[in-house]
Amino acid sequence: MIMTGLFCACGNGEGKKGETVSPSAVGTEASATSLKDVFKNYFTVGVAINTWQLSDPKDSALIQKHFNSCTMENEMKPENVLDWEASKSTSNEMPAINKVNLEKVLKLASSNGLKLRGHTLIWHNQTPDWLFCKNYDPEAGYVDKKTMLTRMESYIEQVITYCESTYPGVVYAYDVVNEAVGDAGNEFRSDSTWYEIIGEEYFEKAFEYARKYGKDKVKLFYNDYNEYDVKKANFITAQVKKLAEKGYIDGVGMQSHWTMDDPEVDMIEFAIEKYATIPGMEIQLTEIDMHNNDDSEASLALQADRYKEIFEMLVTLKKENRANITNVTFWGLNDGVTWLTNFRKETSYPLLFDADNNPKPVLQSLLSIK
Ligand code: GLA
């Protein structure tokens, strides 16, 4: 792996090709340029956030400076959008949504000048079990397929219609279905209650409904992890192609949870080009982070190099029209708010800023991309 030099471990103040490291670029966020400007000819740059960060002046200043897209880390997931109490008192098959919560998200994103990726409509995780139960009673057993399809359609209709009618254009894309493929990579995952009740058909139905209500006002994505795995990429491509032929989908979301050595850059490139074989597909890297349990100078320099190598590959694919990459989104603003520390059971330093919002070497290495 090549060191960028800008933040090389030797710390001799000499950058690649003789550039001098500006001390002001380290320790405070004083960079003259921003990520969204550096990549403006290629793709938008997003960040996963929580509404409290948009209300915090320091976080929101940093978010506004570098990003033009955001994804709510949790607040647009079904468990936070659905309203159990209100659903129980509906006499029909329309689960109720909490418009107060949604309004808060939309208002904050829009007042901070950010467009939103709607994450996520249909997922096996962070979706309350009561949604699948008779009378929304978690003790009452699951409803039948027909009822569940009606509930699915109603949920998708309500979310898309509410967002579009109250803040038109703010939500520009939805992860309509998240993580539908099993870890073996060659079949739909069976540990999803959507799958259990509806069967495989739930996948296509979700997109059919999303298109019906979103029309061409929002872009519809399928989003998944281990999306660079060849077997999984082949399976996803086959499924998405079928949806694309019906006009139900606009793109593939590659979650992009990387480590310091996995996947190899050419595996990511290979998968992107695979998805790009589906006519008309956009590609977005929706949840970028790079697990690193070492915040030594040397390790952060290696991280900066690896991020740079990957981003240069993305820019090349876009420049050469080999893939229509339209957004990249980092899964968290800074190392203090990353899910990876819990998930990996060790402190992780995967993002562009440290826990105090100071830029890490990787920020400068990405800002140096032409
Ligand atoms: C998946 C989901 C995200 C998030 C991460 C972990 O990738 O798509 O919403 O929950 O797991 O934080």
Helix content: 25-40%
**Low-confidence segments, ≥5 residues, pLDDT <50?**
1-27
Largest sheet: 8 strands, parallel, barrel
Count of runs of 4 or more consecutive helical residues: 14
How many strands?
Answer: 9
Straight-line distance between termini: 20 Å
Give the DSSP E fraction (strand runs of 2 or more residues).
15-25%
The chain-level structural class is alpha/beta
Structural notes for this entry:
With 370 residues, the protein is of the alpha/beta class. The chain has 14 helices and 9 strands. It has helices at residues 35-38, 51-55, 57-66, 78-81, 84-88, 99-111, 145-166, 193-198, 201-214, 230-245, 265-275, 297-319, 340-344, 361-367; strands spanning 44-49, 69-72, 115-122, 171-178, 219-224, 251-254, 257-259, 282-291, 324-330. The chain has an 8-stranded parallel β-barrel with strand order 1-2-3-4-5-6-8-9, surrounded by 4 helices. α11 (265-275) links the parallel β7 and β8 (282-291). α10 packs parallel to α11, α11 packs parallel to α12 and α12 runs parallel beside α14. The longest helix is centred in the last third of the chain and has 23 residues, at 297-319. The two termini are 20 Å apart. Residues 1-27 have low confidence and may be disordered. Bound molecules: alpha-D-galactopyranose (GLA).
